[in-house]
Amino acid sequence: MSEMNPEQVYWFAKKKQKKKLKMEARRKPEDMPFTITSLLDALVIILIFLLKTYGSDPINITQKEGEMLLPKSVTMTNMADAVDILISASTILVRNNAVVNVKNGKVDANSKRDGPDGFFIDPLFKKLKDEAKKLKAAEKQGGRPFRGDAILGVHKGTPYRLLAEVLYTANQAEFKTYTFAIVKMRD
Question: Is pTM, for the whole model, over 0.70?
Fold first, then answer.
C-alpha cells in the first residue's frame, strides 16, 4: 500500500473522529440533560397547584331565581372552612342535605321545641349537633381544630325572624361564629 499524503491523513483522522463521536453518543444515553424524571416532577407540581387552587372553595351554592339568590359584594377575603347552612325559600339545608321545610318564610311549629313562637328548631339542632361531633372527632384524630364556624347562605327574600331562629339554633349547637355567603362582584 502506498503512503498517504498529508491531506488524506487529515481527511481519515477527521472521519475517524466523527465516527468516534457518534459511537460515544450512542453508548451514553444517561448523559442526556432532559429526563422523564424532571418532567414528572414538573407535572406533579402543576397538579398540586391546580388541586390547591380548585379545591379551596368550601361550599358551592346553586342559585335559582325565586328559590335561592345570594346578596352581592365586592369583598376580597376568602371564606374559611366551616359547616354550611343554607336557607332557601322552601328548605333549610346543612351540607346540602335538607333538614327542615320552610313555608311562607316560616318553619312549621311542630319542628320547634317551644311551638310557633319559639326560636329553637329541633331538626336543625340535631343535624348541627351531629356535625359538631364529627368535627370534634376529626380534631382528636389530628384534623383542624373545631372553632364553631358556620357559613350561612341565605336567600335574599328570607324574613329576619327565620334568620334569627336559625342563628339561635346554630348557637345552641356550638356554632358561634358566622360568615354570610355572598356573590362576589368584579370591580
Answer: no
